[in-house]
Structures are given as C-alpha cells and as structure tokens.
Amino acid sequence: MLGLVALAALASVAGCRESDPPIPTARIKEVSATSRPATTTPQPEPTQPEPLASATSPEPTPAPIATRARDPACPVFHAGRTLGTLDNPALVEISGVAASRTRPGVLYVHNDSGDAARFFALNPRMEMFAEYQLEGITAIDWEDVAIGPASDGVTSLFFADTGDNSARETGVGRDHVEVVRVPEPTLSPGKHSLSDAVPLPLVYPDRPHDCEALAVDPTTGDLYLATKEADTSSLLFTVHDPKPGKLNTLTLVGEVGRAPNPMPLGFEFVTAMDFHFRADAAIVRTYESAWLWQRDPNETWGTALARTPRRVPTRLEALGEGITFADDRQSYVTISEGERSPVWLYSELSDCRPTNGE
After folding, report:
1. Is residue 354 part of a domain?
2. How many CA atoms lie within 13 A of 179 on its CB side?
3. What is the Cα–Cα distance from 26 to 230, expressed in whole angstroms?
4. How many angstroms separate the CA atoms of 316 and 47, rounded?
5. 99 in a domain, yes or no?
C-alpha cells in the first residue's frame, strides 16, 4: 500500500526553480488523540484508507523546541506531483486542508462559505472516504482547518469560521468570529454526525478583519490567525486557551513578513497557513505562491514570521486556498477550489546539497 512517503519516492526528481528556494525538514513526536464513537449512518465508500503531514501585546513564552539550526540551503523540494483529483460533486469549493495525526495518508478538507458545518476525510488516492456533520454548529464562512492539541491534550480539528469579505472591502464586518473545535474523529466510511463540536467565539482588539488562515501551535495549542488585508501586510493574531460561551479577545502579535522585492501580486492575500509538527517551521500560501519561515529554538512565532520568508514551490492552481504539512513530516500538500481540482504533493529531495558550492 502506498502512503505519502512512497508517493514522494515516485515524484519527479526535478529541483525547485531559482525563485523557489528550499524548505526545512522537521520531525516531532505526535500528540495522541482520544477516539470516540460518532452517531453513524454507514454509506460505504469504494476504498478504505491506507498508510502513506488594539495595542500589540507580547506573545506567551514559547514552549522549548528541539531543532537543528536553520539551514538556508537544504532540504530542496520537488516541484510537485499530483496525489489525485477531487472527483466528487461535494468537493468543488475546498478552502482548507489538514493532515490526520492518527491515520497516515488521510487528509481532512472542507468547503468555503455556502456549505453546511461539515468536513470530509480523503484517503491516500484523494477519494472521499467519510463525511462528518457537526451537530449544533452553523457555518458562516469557513476558510481554513488546522490540527493540534486542545487544552485537554486531545488532538483536535479547528475550523476557522473567520471569513469576512465585508471587513476587508468596506471596513464594516462581523462583530465576532469563531473557531470550531472538535476532537479528531474515529475514522470509518460513510456519513457521521458529531455532537462534541464546540464553537470558540473570538473578537479582534481593534476592528473586524477578513481572515482565511489558521494554525495551531503543536506544543501549546495556542491559535494563530493571519489576516487577509486589502492594502497592508497580513496581521498575525493569537489567543491562548479560548473558552466556549464567552468572547475571547485576540492579541495582535505583529505583521507577517513581506516577501522579497519584487513582491508577487497578491502576496498580502494570505489564504492558508500551517505550523510544522515539530514547531520549527511555518508555511503560508496565497492564491499563486507559498512561503516558508523557519523558527529558531525558543523563538516566538511572531518573531519568526516577522522575517522575510523564502518562496517554496507551488503548481499553477485555479484558486489556491489550502496548504498543510504532510504526515510524513518531509512534505507539504496544496489544494485549490474548483471542480476536479488536483491535490499536489511537494516532497523532499533525498540528495540535497548546499547551493553555495560548499
């Protein structure tokens, strides 16, 4: 059975373009999840998954991370290879993607605004394997999904109901937004109803913002939101251990670092973000590009993301909205809105050499 690692071995050995510098490798110990049953109406799929990733306030002190020094030359990544095509009428406006922590090769995806509060599990061939409906949750504008530990340590999915085009276009937007948290479910084929999803209301300290990018710190569980701005840099906000049933005020950390000149068109239109399992790298995408930041030991995400990023490979996609580090910890995946969208894997070259001739 082929997993992401095996698929990576089959990828083209063509290197990155000059404009597509390397991305660091990182590995971390997984946080185990607590599985629990869901109310189920089985509808078997054709295949089962198989193995294959106001004022600015200071950030909380980061948990120690063990990592190698940042290396600007290695590793180098393939230019991208398709894992499959989303050939399902329910998957036409995918806005977020996250790699499962408990089932190798499985990706979780969800649609953009206009869909119900539901998400889907894809097997390694990118076939829809399971659908999960969240009881008691109303989806306004889901834009991203992240995976990480909840405050009780349970590995959970976090859905960013944070889209707000009006805030970006007119300055008048939603009075608050939400991140919906649900423990990573037991994986089985068919349609399922989950009753343990919890909305976490969030409010910005200054004004409404449009936001399409969410990441979860894999060591602390802190939530990070990167906004989508019309004419300024993306802003980074965070919140520690948000509680249900109350408004949780986000903390403004700072700006997300600008791309090198000449800045690509739409760089400030951040559409997705993910933190690596080891907490030493962040990857951010826009409609047409993807960017990498490395994080030093004991450095805050705000400090790391304030630096100028390095570009990493992306394939031409109709409307690039999703990115996640893959479960093999040596690759990343991108996904786009649109009918029959391909899912792209960018895997690490095994024979990386420094680019400065040393």
Report:
1. no
2. 32
3. 33
4. 29
5. yes
* Average pLDDT value over all residues in the chain: 80
Question: Which pLDDT tens digit goes with each residue over 217-242?
Answer: 999 999 999 999 877 889 999 999 99
- The neighbouring-strand residues paired with 275 are 282
CATH code where residue 21 lies: 2.115.10
Peptide bond between residue 262 and the one before it cis (omega within 30 degrees of 0): yes
Alpha-carbon distances of 12 from 135, 297, 313, rounded to whole Å: 43, 33, 13
Predicted confidence (pLDDT) at residue 341 exceeds the cutoff of 90: yes
Cα 212 from Cα 285, distance rounded (Å): 10
> Quick one: CA dihedral 184, 189, 195, 197, positive or negative?
positive
Q: What is the pLDDT of residues 59-88, one digit of tens each?
A: 655 554 444 455 655 667 788 999 999 999
Of 83-97, 145-159, 259-273, least confident by mean pLDDT is: 259-273
Q: For residue 344, list its beta bridge partners.
A: 82, 334
**Tally of structural domains, the chain:** 1
Residue 69 lies in a domain: yes
The gap between the terminal CA atoms of the chain, to the nearest Å, is 39
How is residue 354 written in tokens?
């420094």
Identify which of 166, 174, 147, 172 has the alpha carbon closest to the alpha carbon of residue 158.
147
